[in-house]
């Protein structure tokens, strides 16, 4: 028998390795996704993205996706969950998890990101500081983010503007918004989204703040009468991957995974805006109403004075409050904000 040449051995080894790779078990990543209560963004964009991930990307990665409310997980615990490694990819509602780290609320303090165009510029400016913070302190890497869109006011009692919030109980989602409502003479009430519809119905709270699409899918127009379409924040949702899981992936897989999430992010921004515009019309009985359910809320005209109150809130309320809280846990927080976000919105 003739001895095998080295080239033959190398070729045989290459085929053997290729065969092993072809039959290797795919990586399985556990995903704690957005709440089902979040509505169509979760149902029509987020869940299909994860469930078709392997087929769409060709990557040997399977996403075991479940919404947080199906898992029985609170969205406010997102940072703790991903830091612990209990789930590999976790949806982070920045307003909710900012209680554990105010850094995450940097692009969404009251009066800052009040429309889609500004929100996109602001988040892109904060993306790198946010990713660095997640990696340094929370064992996580940022993958993508999208907004629910401008968060507006829904009330059961009749209102004609922000001045009418004096003495009224208003559902809020974070301390920045709570402080703003207090400044108007209102009484901030911290409630989860899922609890709010019933709270409005029973009078536990008089008004509540969310996006038009979330309100529409959550049935808020069934238990309220007026809406003021003045944006306070946009409520970003981010997806992050456990840093150890990220680092364990081969470089080429990390590149392809990051690209897939960039495409998902762009699609989610576009769809979020489409849903917002449609629901804003549907909630007040206007056409075209193609996606949401049509209601008959009274749309309160937004005055120039109320717009100024919200715009001024960045300087007078939300930025000072946020800076103080953030600098306590991250000493370079407000300095970084002023460096990257300040120029975007004309603040020093």
From TrEMBL:
Record's keyword terms, sorted: Signal
GO terms for biological process, alphabetical: transmembrane transport
Keyword flag Signal: yes
Pfam families noted in UniProt: DctP
Domain of life the protein comes from: Bacteria
Keyword Iron-sulfur included in the entry's annotation: no
Signal peptide stretch: 1-24
Cross-referenced InterPro entries: DctP_fam (IPR018389), TRAP_DctP_sf (IPR038404)
Entry's transmembrane regions: none
Protein name: ABC transporter substrate-binding protein
